[in-house]
Amino acid sequence: MSTALEHGVVGEKVSNGHGCCKSGPGYASPLEAMAGPRESLIYVTAVYAGTGIEKPDYLATVDVDPSSPTYSKVIHRLPVPYLGDELHHTGWNSCSSCHGDPSAERRFLIVPALVSGRVYVVDVKTNPRAPSLHKVVGPADIIQKTGLAYPHTSHCLASGDIMISCLGDKDGNAAGNGFLLLDSEFNVKGRWEKPGHSPLFGYDFWYQPRHNTMISTSWGAPSAFTKGFNLQHVSDGFYGRHLHVYSWPGGELRQTLDLGDSGLLPLEIRFLHDPAKDTGFVGSALTSNMIRFFKTQDGSWSHEVAISVKPLKVQNWILPEMPGLITDFLISLDDRFLYFVNWLHGDIRQYNIEDLKNPKLTGQVWVGGLIQKGSPIVAITDDGETWQSEVPEIQGKKLRGGPQMIQSSLDGKRLYVTNSLFSAWDKQFYPELVQKGSHILQIDVDTENGGLKINPNFFVDFGTEPDGPSLAHEMRYPGGDCTSDIWI
């Protein structure tokens, strides 16, 4: 395909929507967002890259309105123009951080392709039920101007710029990682961090402007993780265990927190939603700890393990012990509950975090995993007894893979959950997932007393897609959500 599309705008240039609105996108506060309208659509990245199906990845639009005749179905698919992208996480051109700017508009979904290095810009405003491609930012342009590749997390900034964490250079070396800046027209501006202030590894990031701080996390070198997971690569230094504390918006690396052996592969990071708070959590995948970070009296940052998921002793697996593998988590908009997944064990958990130093387990539900009944892998108790988890069938379908990405309704009463992590890792740990495709579940949440329960009326089966089984990953609502929006 010609390079013109790589840098070109598809269709006509759109206006910024100046005029009648008295406020910008999103909500004035997290609590105001909780009172927002119920979700009716979800945008989901769906992947063919790495599955053996030679089709482009796509953005699926799913109907989540219970009163709709197409409830729990994919109602639109927007394929991207290229093969081999591995669409992964998504963000917005504008969110609640721009709520005070009447000229700002949440119009475009930013869709980085983790493997190819492209960044797709998708118009979801013109027709929310049938998004269209607006622009493609080509990898050659990004590499030439910044040296960055493997784009991951995207956040909009109050300035109108878009910031994307990139996990390495074009050769997959972690040493080349950093933060890409696009302007409001999605042109490459350069790097966000100051020269010489790049992190050791890249992955996720979150900023808290009232504390003039951004903190980023560490997955690993793309040259390692794109080939699947090799435990030897951890001891060889190809994976991270650090948090990187930056001045915001200055881009100076102020502090590097070594999480040690209790914090291997720190992935998703969230501050509390209340912009006055100076604390948050990060999920350490390999050691399966939820780690709380916080500001100390002298203005530096520290950390402590808040929740630990013990590895299970198992038989018939590649290792004698199996970590939970915390790959995603979120915090309810009122900062009362924290939810996380154990991708290998197969459970979703709910914790009350009103006492930040003493989270309390208030809900747990099994929705897949390697130790469910029917699997050859069994867990062993300290007494030597074997056990397996009870995972129900939903609409006659056996649940595949393990819980991976989660999204919460604004009011906190529903969770949506996908089950694909990354195609190379899916193939390694859940080969059936690649063969039969992903699914989306909905979990009903008790926000009064705590508790999680699968909604039997909701099941989106990506195993029956027109071009064959695909892998579903990140989910976004058209109006923003608790993992996309930041308040200032």
Report on this model:
- This protein is mostly beta strands and 488 residues long.
- It contains seven helices and 32 strands.
- Strands 3-2-1-32 form a four-stranded antiparallel β-sheet, with no helix packed on it. It has a four-stranded antiparallel β-sheet with strand order 4-5-6-7. Strands 8-9-10-11 form a four-stranded antiparallel β-sheet, covered by helices on one side.
- A hairpin with a 5-residue loop joins β18 and β19.
- The longest helix is centred in the first third of the chain and has 8 residues.
- It is globular.
- It starts with a helix and ends in a 12-residue tail after the last strand.
Short description:
The chain has helices at residues 3-7, 30-34, 139-146, 222-225, 231-235, 423-429, 431-436; strands at 41-47, 58-63, 73-79, 91-92, 108-112, 119-123, 132-137, 149-156, 162-168, 178-182, 188-191, 205-208, 213-216, 242-247, 253-258, 266-271, 279-284, 289-295, 301-308, 312-315, 321-322, 329-331, 337-342, 347-352, 360-366, 378-380, 386-387, 406-408, 414-417, 439-445, 452-461, 471-476.
